């Protein structure tokens, strides 16, 4: 059984392993192994993970069974959009998918931003499992971008939103 808890500095190595494994399983078919390795190194370095864990206004959660992390989620209040929380990451280890971990992580995140009226995210259009997950949890498409994860990334994404409260 996995329990959702706040991530701490002691989790960064396990988080990097989880994100590397999950990113390769999810994105290698779309971008190739080399590009995914580049994304993991840039987005999920130990300093980047530590910075997100320490960020004020953010919530970094893990699903932990005492032996391994089965999933993680990170969201933070937007600095550009009023009353909007941005879901930056929600990933479940491939061997732990379909166990309710994503649902539990998301349910906890929804309660972490009492001032937010909207939760917003970006998702790779070809990641049909993730798109379906978010639709099942009340998200709708509001836009598209070619800058997923940062300016000029060149990565496509569907922008989705959900009203909170």
From TrEMBL:
<dbReference type="InterPro" id="IPR016181">
    <property type="entry name" value="Acyl_CoA_acyltransferase"/>
</dbReference>
<dbReference type="GO" id="GO:0016747">
    <property type="term" value="F:acyltransferase activity, transferring groups other than amino-acyl groups"/>
</dbReference>
<feature type="domain" description="N-acetyltransferase">
    <location>
        <begin position="2"/>
        <end position="165"/>
    </location>
</feature>
<protein>
    <submittedName>
        <fullName>N-acetyltransferase</fullName>
    </submittedName>
</protein>
<dbReference type="InterPro" id="IPR000182">
    <property type="entry name" value="GNAT_dom"/>
</dbReference>
<keyword id="KW-0012">Acyltransferase</keyword>
<keyword id="KW-0808">Transferase</keyword>
<dbReference type="Pfam" id="PF13673">
    <property type="entry name" value="Acetyltransf_10"/>
</dbReference>
<dbReference type="InterPro" id="IPR050832">
    <property type="entry name" value="Bact_Acetyltransf"/>
</dbReference>
């Amino acid at each position: 059984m996995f329990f959702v808890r706040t991530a701490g500095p002691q989790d960064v190595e396990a988080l990097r392993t989880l994100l590397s494994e999950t990113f390769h399983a999810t994105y290698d078919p779309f971008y190739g192994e080399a590009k995914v390795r580049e994304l993991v190194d840039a987005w999920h370095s130990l300093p980047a993970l530590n910075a997100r864990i320490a960020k004020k206004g953010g919530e970094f959660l893990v699903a932990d069974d005492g032996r391994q992390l089965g999933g993680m989620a990170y969201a933070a209040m937007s600095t550009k959009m009023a009353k909007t929380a941005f879901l930056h990451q929600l990933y479940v280890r491939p061997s732990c998918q379909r166990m309710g971990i994503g649902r539990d992580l998301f349910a906890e995140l929804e309660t972490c931003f009492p001032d937010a009226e909207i939760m917003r995210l970006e998702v790779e259009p070809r990641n049909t499992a993730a798109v379906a997950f978010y639709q099942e949890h009340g998200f709708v498409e509001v836009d598209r971008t070619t800058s997923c994860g940062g300016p000029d990334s060149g990565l496509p994404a569907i922008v989705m939103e959900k009203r909170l409260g």
